[in-house]
């Protein structure tokens, strides 16, 4: 039933795509983004550890709610940026996240529209909601990561930070890119790769609810900010989630701001510098 509602909404969202875009200064991804191969990552184990069917359990469920309308409207000024660093308690609580509906529309108008057709945007919307429901990862977190990793550009290329990162979530080895001959299927798979992990490595589900691929990095306790640092850096400094350990220092702070209405997609922007974060390009 819910899924049918979702499909019905997609054409409406596609129609919104006519709004004139503000071209992100950096459409796509940049060095330092993406899932990183963890130091001491165990040898390839059972495929059942990640990928399709993976689901959050335990404390991570405190950061999941499926409603598309629960949550505020986000920052009044969508260029607002708060510097978040240090321990997880310094980052915004769950009730501060804006609602999914407004968050999707905001990013659709400002970023997705630059490189994605109306059908592609509708397909991405459906994929986020389907994977969120199956993985029990909040759809807003999935959307924030997509915006962070690729500015929502489904045509984004692969990068390599030690492993090959492909697709809108620049996910672990084995992740796929967009396939124009299979629009819905490849977009769904790109969202799965980053959220549920690939056949060989972790995604957000495994960083939130840990398994042997991620638990050596220390206990994330289901906290999405700690999980995000693990995803991007392969290890976590629990005293400072803005310690990039060679990856993007601003990564977790950016997600925290995106979840509250920030749309910034620039690389090395003034906000980062003002926060003392190293800019990448
Ligand atoms: C995205 O769109 C911009 C602006 O139209 C274009 O310059 C760029 O090549 C596109 N990038 C990709 C990867 O499609
Ligand atoms: C973790 O971050 C804290 C605070 O920034 C810093 O003092 C410490 O050296 C970092 N730990 C490691 C292992 O890098
Ligand atoms: C955390 O890391 C960021 C980025 O390197 C740095 O600016 C900040 O001073 C560090 N320490 C704390 C406690 O915030």
Structure description:
A hairpin with a 3-residue loop joins strand 1 (159-160) and strand 2 (164-165). The chain has 9 helices and 2 strands; from the N terminus they run H-H-H-H-E-E-H-H-H-H-H. By secondary structure, the protein is mainly alpha-helical. The chain has a two-stranded antiparallel sheet. Bound molecules: 2-acetamido-2-deoxy-beta-D-glucopyranose (3 copies).
What would a concise description of this structure say?
The chain is mainly α and 281 residues long. It has helices at residues 2-16, 100-115, 118-135, 139-150, 183-196, 204-208, 224-233, 251-258, 270-275, and strands at 159-160, 164-165. The protein contains nine helices and two strands, in the order ααααββααααα.
Which H/E pattern describes the elements?
HHHHEEHHHHH
Termini, distance in Å? 45 Å
Q: Considering DSSP H and I runs of 4 or more, what fraction of the residues is helical? A: 25-40%
Spatial sequence of strands, sheet with the most strands: 1-2
What best-fitting shape do the alpha-carbon axes yield?
Answer: globular
Radius of gyration equals 17 Å
Structural class of the helices, strands and pairings? mainly alpha
Strand content: under 5%
Poorly predicted parts: 1-26
Contiguous helical run count: 9
Q: What is the mean predicted local confidence, pLDDT?
A: 86
């Amino acid at each position: 039933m819910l899924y049918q509602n979702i499909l019905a909404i997609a054409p409406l969202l596609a129609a919104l795509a006519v709004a004139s875009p503000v071209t992100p200064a950096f459409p796509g991804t940049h060095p330092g983004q993406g899932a990183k191969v963890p130091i001491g990552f165990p040898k390839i184990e059972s495929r059942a550890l990640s990928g399709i069917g993976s689901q959050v359990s335990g404390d991570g469920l405190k950061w999941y709610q499926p409603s598309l309308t629960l949550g505020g409207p986000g920052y009044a000024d969508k260029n607002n940026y708060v510097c978040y660093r240090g321990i997880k308690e310094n980052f915004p609580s769950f009730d501060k996240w804006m609602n999914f509906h407004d968050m999707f529309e905001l990013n659709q108008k400002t970023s997705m529209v630059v490189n994605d057709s109306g059908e592609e945007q509708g397909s991405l919307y459906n994929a986020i909601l389907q994977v969120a429901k199956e993985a029990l990862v909040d759809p807003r977190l999935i959307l924030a990561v997509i915006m962070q990793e690729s500015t929502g550009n489904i045509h984004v290329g692969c990068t390599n930070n030690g492993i090959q990162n492909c697709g809108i979530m620049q996910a672990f080895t084995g992740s796929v890119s967009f396939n124009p001959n299979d629009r819905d299927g490849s977009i769904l798979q790109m969202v799965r790769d980053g959220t549920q992990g690939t056949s060989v490595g972790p995604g957000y589900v495994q960083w939130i609810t840990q398994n042997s691929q991620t638990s050596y990095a220390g206990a994330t306790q289901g906290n999405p900010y700690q999980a995000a640092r693990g995803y991007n850096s392969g290890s976590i400094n629990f005293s400072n989630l803005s310690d990039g350990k060679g990856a993007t220092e601003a990564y977790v702070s950016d997600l925290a701001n995106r979840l509250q209405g920030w749309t910034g997609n620039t690389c090395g922007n003034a906000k980062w510098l003002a926060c003392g974060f190293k800019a990448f390009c």
